[in-house]
Automatic annotation (TrEMBL):
<dbReference type="InterPro" id="IPR050680">
    <property type="entry name" value="YpeA/RimI_acetyltransf"/>
</dbReference>
<keyword id="KW-0808">Transferase</keyword>
<protein>
    <submittedName>
        <fullName>GNAT family N-acetyltransferase</fullName>
    </submittedName>
</protein>
<dbReference type="Pfam" id="PF00583">
    <property type="entry name" value="Acetyltransf_1"/>
</dbReference>
<dbReference type="GO" id="GO:0016747">
    <property type="term" value="F:acyltransferase activity, transferring groups other than amino-acyl groups"/>
</dbReference>
<dbReference type="InterPro" id="IPR016181">
    <property type="entry name" value="Acyl_CoA_acyltransferase"/>
</dbReference>
<keyword id="KW-0012">Acyltransferase</keyword>
<feature type="domain" description="N-acetyltransferase">
    <location>
        <begin position="10"/>
        <end position="173"/>
    </location>
</feature>
<dbReference type="InterPro" id="IPR000182">
    <property type="entry name" value="GNAT_dom"/>
</dbReference>
């Protein structure tokens, strides 16, 4: 089945403080099931109280998507900018995660598109990092218009294993 025939069954929205319990569940699931895909770790974040996740939703821009008409979340993605005058032309896409049962449905591209629609009014460029062997994520970002501009060797160390990261950027210029 094509993605376009399925994507209308999902809705993406900006999450607010009241979404903190669902956001925490999905975020911890992401960190626990894919430790090599994120700079943060499950061990750090599972120890945090709900208020920490609420604060994150207040301070950052996080979009979530799930079946249209339901409050359940099947995917999340975050975006932040920096205040410094010399850095505020750039934003960072972070924390992209889609539950296994919602992969290949079009939800992942909807989330990235939502970040870019939001970001293009605020910044000139959006940056992200992705583990080089994460083919699905690299392809997702390339399809959305991100291009690779570098490689950071041994960017992450998970246990005894190192993971290189591809640095990618999207520009509206
Ligand atoms: C990355 C992620 C969000 C992608 O979600 P998705 O629903 O699979 O995304 P899409 O269906 O749009 O697929 C993206 C591309 O990867 C391809 N793909 C999907 N699964 C794949 C796999 N296991 N191996 C290789 N390619 C794969 C798809 O065919 C598609 O390629 P195309 O654009 O050429 O058609 C999802 O896999 C995920 O949450 N992974 C765990 C967390 C993670 O890695 N986050 C990214 C952190 S940077």
């Amino acid at each position: 089945m094509s993605q376009s025939s399925l994507s209308p069954t999902f809705a993406v929205r900006r999450l607010s403080a009241s979404d903190a319990p669902g956001f925490r569940d999905l975020r911890l699931e992401a960190l626990r099931s894919h430790p090599e895909s994120f700079g943060a770790s499950w061990e750090e974040e599972t120890a945090q109280p709900l208020a920490w996740f609420t604060d994150r939703l207040d301070r950052s821009t996080v979009f979530g998507g799930g079946p249209a008409g339901a409050s359940t979340l099947s995917g999340i993605v975050g975006f932040y900018t920096m205040d410094s005058p010399k850095l505020r032309h750039k934003g960072v896409l972070w924390g992209m995660y889609v539950r296994p049962q919602a992969r290949g449905t079009g939800l992942a591209p909807m989330l990235v598109t939502q970040v870019l629609a939001h970001a293009r009014h605020i910044v000139e460029e959006v940056r992200l990092t992705v583990v080089a062997t994460n083919t699905a994520a690299v392809r997702l970002y390339k399809r959305a218009g991100f291009t690779p501009y570098g490689l950071e060797p041994r960017a992450l160390k998970v246990g005894h294993d190192y993971h290189d990261e591809v640095l990618m950027a999207w520009s509206r210029l």
